[in-house]
Design brief:
Length: 112
């Protein structure tokens, strides 16, 4: 008997709580950018959502272009280095003892 009364009381309290929460007035949903009313779920109205999507696309395009410029610069540096190495320009050529050379000291007893 006590168990039945306890279960009955709890079920009545649960149903009352359900209807109390359901009947509570909800806060109006407004766009967080422009403040207009928003129907349904979401924080942005349709026009602000579209603008945010366009901004995301613009940002992605700019990042892609920047990455492409960086890759082009790196490729140019690598190609220039390869060209120099294939021409022998980056390797030092041995000096010869030639008195007409400007880089070699006139006195052979002087060190480099």
């Amino acid at each position: 008997m006590v168990v039945a009364l306890t279960l009955g009381t709890l079920s009545v309290a649960g149903v009352g709580l359900f209807f109390a929460v359901k009947a509570r007035p909800r806060a109006p949903r407004v766009c967080r950018v422009c403040g207009t009313g928003v129907e349904g779920a979401g924080d942005l109205c349709a026009s602000c959502r579209r603008e945010a999507e366009l901004e995301t696309v613009r940002r992605a395009t700019a990042e892609r272009a920047e990455r492409q410029r960086a890759l082009t610069t790196i490729r140019n540096v690598i190609n220039a280095t390869r060209r120099r190495r294939s021409d022998g320009g980056s390797r030092r050529k041995p000096r010869t003892r030639n008195s007409s050379s400007e880089n070699w000291p006139a006195d052979p007893t002087r060190p480099f």
